[in-house]
Amino acid sequence: MFDLKGKKGLILGIANTHSIAYGCAKAFTQAGAEIGMTYGRDKTRTYVEPIAEELNADFLKQCDVSNDDAMEDLFAYIRDSWGRIDFVLHSIAFAPRDDLHGPVINSSREGFTMAMDISCHSFARTARLARPLMTDGGSLLTVSYYGGEKVVDHYSIMGPVKAALESTTRYLAAELGEDGISVNALSPGPILTRASSGIKEFDHLADEAIEHSPEHRLVTIEEVGAYAAFLVSDGARSITGDVCYVDAGRHIML
Ligand code: NAD
Question: 161 alpha carbon to ligand 1 midpoint, in Å?
Fold first, then answer.
């Protein structure tokens, strides 16, 4: 593992022990990082509290990323308690069910806008708030999916949203490079989580990934976590603006 001792990181997007963010948070703490965590909705708290205890998180706060005041309060708290921050993992996505289950051509303006705001623009807002606290440089990570690059059956409006998220990653990387802040997007293959269970025919998407990936298997949140821990380590300082696949090689195949 990579040495993250002395680093402090914020994890946005743990819902439960199946979450990709949980796999990453575990890897960060195993490598010696101190973490703080947030959860989106009140009813998630019961699942997230034991995780915060298990990982010895410095803090656990509610933060709906569509609420600007909550975001400002979160980063003000980090400034007052930690004084700085080394990395942030943004592992958040949302789209209204009707829009997610229909073709893009039928998506509602409200649903598309909401999905883009919560799943993409919130990463730019996170970067803006984290930047002044990354006094020694830092690392920002988000989580994308291959459906943003190629058309994947039933991925629907999350396809254009992830395409925008990957482009946002590149622009933020260009804008923050002089501050020594790297910005990357992990792109894991399909993993059964609460968010992915909302995708129509997710089982089919997972079967397709197994069939067409060179390794013929699904990836785990621990494997995604290992890559995330590397990306926030000093060893990855020169890697920025990238989409970093953790998909058993699926993206190289037709
Ligand atoms: P998950 O349900 O465990 O995590 C999604 C998180 O987003 C939850 O913690 C939820 O509370 C949070 N969230 C949604 N709206 C929010 C809001 N307004 N404010 C704050 N938090 C909010 O599912 P996951 O699969 O771990 O998803 C994490 C990320 O990984 C997402 O961006 C998803 O698109 C991406 N991803 C998932 C897969 C997969 O197959 N599971 C593959 C590639 C990428």
Answer: 13
